[in-house]
Design goal:
By secondary structure, the chain is of the alpha/beta class. Helices cover 34% and strands 27% of the residues. The chain has two domains: 4-121, Rossmann fold (3-Layer(aba) Sandwich), CATH 3.40.50; 125-287 and 310-351, Dihydrodipicolinate Reductase, domain 2, CATH 3.30.360.10. The protein contains ten helices and 17 strands. Pfam families: GFO_IDH_MocA, GFO_IDH_MocA_C3.
């Protein structure tokens, strides 16, 4: 495949980060943009030099030859739009999560398998040099057995998009998925979870209107990765300020790793080992990594005929962890996780 023909659906705020990444790749030809507001689609087409623009996804999928669809719509539209593209034999990269319930997610992966195409989901934190360096150090045994980890990420929450605060939205699905993806990538699939999740602020002003909060805005999770390995994730829309000298920490029997900055925008990795007896900072250069570069990376893998280090099963696994988190919080019980993903293959793709 020479150039991968990419169509972007959803011309909201996130698209302003995705489209520059796609446009600068020599492997990508952005052939169409689509948004339910035709004026916004046209503006994006003009701004980014795209020939075709639509306000109807069915029309776009029917009229334009597409290799990869990039779904940047609101969460509630992820599954139905992903399904439309997959059923036409089109590869899909979707902003997180790939669906808001497990049955839809399983259906998407089944369709992708039947059609012989890929279904991948954000976040792309697994691409950063900092994440890769941490994965390599853990795999090498340099910090001994990695036994526990912590992830912390939140902000005060959006003042736009009421769907953020409705059922199917929430801080967990919007933010917690970053640390969940990162820690499962570093420590492996999760077997069960216990959790607490609440709406700490029951009403908010969103889009200029008083909005009742139905989804979580303050969540804490303990994830059991098996073999005595556990991790903790805290996330929320109640974090007015947060220290970001580190937000991901992995503690082993012979050392510790701490990611400076956020996993979606890492600044370096601090390493302490029993052998060195001191903290060293490494991997301070992000290289060409960008948090909105996942679709571009997948397109470049498609063009080169390479297997991405992402797996659709990982996106589904992260979703099941989040669904289980809400169930565990509601029931006060530990909830078992049924899904898994090719973790060994993921690690091998990074360390080779």
């Amino acid at each position: 495949m020479s150039k991968v023909r990419v169509a972007v659906v959803g011309c909201g705020s996130v698209s302003h980060s995705y489209l520059p990444q796609l446009k600068k790749s020599a492997s990508v030809d952005v052939v169409a943009v689509c948004d339910n507001q035709i004026e916004r689609a046209k503006k994006h087409a003009d701004e980014f030099g795209v020939n075709a623009y639509f306000d109807d996804i069915d029309k776009m999928l029917g009229e334009v030859k597409i290799d990869l669809m990039v779904n940047l719509t609101s969460m509630n539209m992820h599954a139905p739009f992903n399904k439309k593209a997959l059923e036409k034999g089109i590869n899909v990269w979707c902003e997180k999560p790939i669906a808001t319930n497990l049955s839809d997610a399983y259906e998407l992966l089944d369709i992708a398998k039947q059609k012989g195409v890929g279904m991948w989901g954000a976040p792309c934190t697994l691409l950063s040099p900092q994440y890769k360096q941490m994965s390599k150090i853990i795999s090498s045994g340099q910090i001994g057995k990695a036994c526990t980890a912590h992830g912390l990420y939140g902000w005060e929450g959006p003042s736009w998009g009421q769907w953020f605060y409705k059922k199917g939205g929430g801080a967990l699905f919007d933010l917690g998925i970053y640390n969940i993806t990162t820690l499962t990538g570093l420590l492996g699939p999760v077997q069960s979870v216990v959790a607490m999740a609440e709406a700490a602020i029951p009403e908010r002003i969103v889009d200029g209107e008083l909005t009742k909060v139905e989804a979580d805005d303050n969540t804490a999770i303990i994830m059991d990765h098996g073999n005595g390995v556990m991790s903790v994730v805290q996330t929320g829309f109640v974090y007015k300020h947060q220290m970001d000298d580190w937000t991901i920490q992995v503690i082993g029997t012979e050392g510790t790793l701490a990611m400076e900055g956020y996993d979606w925008d890492p600044k370096g990795v601090r390493v302490f080992t029993s052998e060195s007896g001191k903290w060293d900072t490494i991997a301070q250069d992000q290289g060409d990594y960008h948090w909105a570069g996942g679709a571009t990376y997948v397109a470049e893998c498609m063009a080169a005929g390479k297997q991405p280090i992402f797996y659709g099963e990982h996106a589904l696994h992260a979703l099941e962890i989040m669904v289980a988190t809400l169930k565990a919080a509601e029931t006060g019980r530990r909830v078992k996780i049924e899904s898994t993903f090719p973790w060994a293959e993921h690690v091998a793709g990074i360390t080779k």
